[in-house]
User: Which sequence fits this backbone?
């Protein structure tokens, strides 16, 4: 990131090579459309290049900053006027398709060795929280839905959504503390 | 967990998952501004947990065009950054720069204007001098033409004058007299320059009586000086011409020293 802050374009190229598949997969899981996802990925790296000086290591790792930036961009686009006009995908919490990303084995182990290991740790941690907590987190994370939208869409009281979400995340924090850099 | 911490954690969770409503997000930002050290640690941890969940997304390969566009953007932005001092000048720097440009331009124009004025003045003086020279030359040409008219007369008397030993030993004079026209041409050389309060006076002496034929001055004794004598009427076939130095304007009778003398 220091090289990117020093306007080294080759460093941006390396960062892209390392993270483009992960980030594009994340964006695609939220937006569902390749063209929109590619535009968003381009916006993300444009912002990384232009706003690199805003990155502060004391406030988190490069990885956390980039993923946070990617989710923010994806969800901003998802909640834009154009997207809101589209009919929301009707689904149920019992429909396993919603959780497709969490249980996909399509990641290439050769390309994503480290990320795959980390994914396994996260998946194991998710397996240790309750189904209800896990499902609320999954919908929020990969479908970009707000707590209110989840409550309305799946007919769950808003307070319950908030509680499940909080308890699930705090449990994950506890479970992941010893395995990842928190 | 206290109520405050519980509220903070709940909002914090919603924040890191981008799942809060607008009003809840504003509320969280207020709490974050006054967050304790422990709350800030929870916030950092939950951000990291949220980021780790991204590893579960299926890796998908974007088209090659995406990277090409990104790298082109990076190159273009870098080029613009290099030009930044020009584009990113603040308004007051631009104002100062504009002021300096205005001042230097004004001074330049002032100096140029002054120089142009001096040049025009110099040219005007030169033109005036040349006009004077032209007038002098025209006068000279006119005078020469008049002298030529005398020389063109078919019947003229030529009288040679010699310098007097004491006053002008190298003096020389010649009178070309057109008796019919009543005018004459006087040519003198080798006589001293006339003082400002004096004039030379030409006399025609006939029967011992001097008749004034006019006054003239000589300012360059080294060269031949020509004068036109307007009125010199006489039928005399004998006589003499003499030149004396007299008070300015001439005298009725010769009073000064004689410089040239010659008989007909």
Assistant:
């Amino acid at each position: 990131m220091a090289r990117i802050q020093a306007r080294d374009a080759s460093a941006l190229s390396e960062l892209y090579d390392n993270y483009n598949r992960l980030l594009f997969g994340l964006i695609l899981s939220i937006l569902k459309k390749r063209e929109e996802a590619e535009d968003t990925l381009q916006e993300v790296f444009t912002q990384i290049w232009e706003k690199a000086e805003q990155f502060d290591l004391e406030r988190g790792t490069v990885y956390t900053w980039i993923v946070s930036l990617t989710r923010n961009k994806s969800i901003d686009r998802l909640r834009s006027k154009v997207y809101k006009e589209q009919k929301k995908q009707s689904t149920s919490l019992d429909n396993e398709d919603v959780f497709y990303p969490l249980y996909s084995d399509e990641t290439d182990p050769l390309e994503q060795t480290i990320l795959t290991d980390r994914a396994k740790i996260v998946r194991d941690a998710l397996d240790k929280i309750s189904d209800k907590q896990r499902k609320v987190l999954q919908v929020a994370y990969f479908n970009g839905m707000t707590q209110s939208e989840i409550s309305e869409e799946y007919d769950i009281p808003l307070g319950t959504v908030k509680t499940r979400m909080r308890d699930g995340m705090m449990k994950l924090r506890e479970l992941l503390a010893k395995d990842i850099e928190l | 967990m206290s109520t405050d911490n519980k509220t903070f954690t709940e909002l914090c969770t919603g924040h890191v998952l981008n799942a809060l409503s607008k009003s809840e997000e504003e509320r969280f930002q207020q709490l974050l501004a006054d967050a304790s050290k422990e709350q800030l640690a929870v916030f950092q941890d939950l951000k990291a947990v949220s980021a780790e969940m991204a590893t579960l997304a299926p890796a998908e390969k974007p088209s090659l065009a995406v990277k090409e566009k990104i790298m082109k953007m990076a190159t273009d932005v870098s080029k613009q950054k290099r030009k930044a001092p020009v584009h990113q000048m603040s308004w007051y720097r631009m104002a100062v720069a504009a002021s300096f440009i205005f001042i230097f331009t004004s001074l330049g124009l002032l100096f140029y204007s002054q120089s142009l004025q001096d040049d025009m003045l110099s040219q005007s003086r030169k033109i005036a001098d040349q006009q004077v020279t032209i007038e002098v030359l025209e006068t000279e040409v006119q005078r020469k033409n008049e002298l030529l008219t005398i020389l063109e007369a078919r019947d003229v008397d030529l009288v040679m004058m010699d310098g007097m030993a004491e006053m002008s030993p190298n003096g020389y004079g010649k009178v070309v007299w057109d008796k019919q026209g009543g005018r004459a041409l006087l040519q003198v050389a080798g006589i001293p320059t006339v003082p400002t309060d004096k004039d030379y006076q030409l006399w025609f002496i006939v029967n011992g009586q001097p008749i004034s034929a006019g006054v003239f001055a000589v300012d360059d004794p080294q060269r031949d000086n020509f004068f036109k004598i307007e009125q010199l009427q006489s039928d005399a076939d004998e006589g003499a011409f003499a030149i004396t130095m007299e008070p300015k304007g001439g005298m009725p009778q010769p009073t000064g020293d004689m410089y040239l003398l010659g008989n007909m």
